[in-house]
């Protein structure tokens, strides 16, 4: 191997960027942003970043919104690119647009999109979806008993289309529905639990 060569795994780690959506205000959690909820002794946002890194993403962009200053102060996010979404109250779609926009000039060829409020989805499932990257046309999604979920791999060729259709809390849902035949479903139900921390009742899942 010459000085200019890089192991294939490292190349993929650089080309597939982790994109963590962590801007929500936790409206149904009494106004507590999910990013700052404690899980295993750390804010959820830290946990989610570590999942993406363990899964092989060398580059991680984190979209912040609600109480962004508190998240920056309380969470150890060294090495991440932090993206402020001033329109976070408009829903997940605005965060997805902001995150994909932040990746546009980085050379990344795909984004592996994760949600901060799903701590039951760990590195094993995330790595499985990341491994389905082939090129910028790739589309892949975790599935649980055959039902599409997160994380989702969006090749760069799809970013403009996703951004154009992302609105409210739907994220990439509309675009993925239109391109369902192109999506590689990756069954992850054996290694992950896709619950969401959305309400007070869901807090029982935190450790």
Descriptive account of the structure:
The chain starts with 7 loop residues before the first helix and ends in a 20-residue tail after the last strand. Helix 4 runs antiparallel to helix 6. The chain is of the alpha/beta class and 207 residues long. Strand 2 and strand 3 form a beta hairpin. It has seven helices and nine strands; from the N terminus they run αβββαβαβαβαββααβ. The strands form two sheets. The protein has a seven-stranded mixed beta sheet, with helices on both faces. It is globular. Residues 1-10 have low confidence and may be disordered. It has helices at residues 8-15, 44-54, 68-74, 92-103, 123-130, 159-165, 173-178, and strands at 16-22, 38-39, 42-43, 60-64, 81-84, 110-115, 139-144, 147-155, 184-187.
Helix/strand structural class: alpha/beta
Helix fraction by DSSP (H/I, runs of at least 4): 25-40%
The largest sheet has its strands arranged as: 5-4-1-6-8-7-9
Number of strands: 9
Could you tell me the mean pLDDT?
A: 92
Strand content: 15-25%
């Amino acid at each position: 191997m010459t000085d200019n060569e890089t192991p294939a795994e490292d190349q993929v780690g650089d080309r597939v960027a982790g994109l963590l959506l962590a801007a929500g205000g936790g409206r149904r959690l009494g106004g507590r942003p999910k990013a700052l909820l404690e899980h295993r002794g750390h804010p959820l946002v830290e946990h989610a970043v570590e999942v993406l890194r363990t899964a092989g993403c060398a580059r991680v962009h984190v979209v912040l919104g609600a109480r962004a200053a508190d998240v920056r102060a309380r969470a150890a996010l060294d090495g991440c690119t932090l993206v402020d979404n001033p329109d976070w109250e408009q829903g997940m779609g605005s965060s997805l647009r902001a995150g994909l926009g932040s990746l546009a000039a980085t050379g990344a060829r795909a984004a592996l999109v994760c949600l901060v409020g799903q701590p039951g989805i760990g590195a094993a499932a995330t790595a499985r979806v990341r491994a389905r990257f082939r090129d910028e046309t790739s589309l892949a999604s975790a599935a649980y008993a055959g039902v599409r979920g997160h994380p989702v791999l969006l090749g760069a060729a799809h970013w403009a289309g996703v951004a154009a259709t992302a609105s409210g809390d739907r994220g990439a849902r509309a675009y993925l529905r239109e391109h369902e035949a192109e999506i590689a479903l990756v069954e992850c139900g054996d290694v992950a639990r896709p619950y969401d921390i959305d309400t007070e009742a869901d807090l029982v899942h935190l450790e």
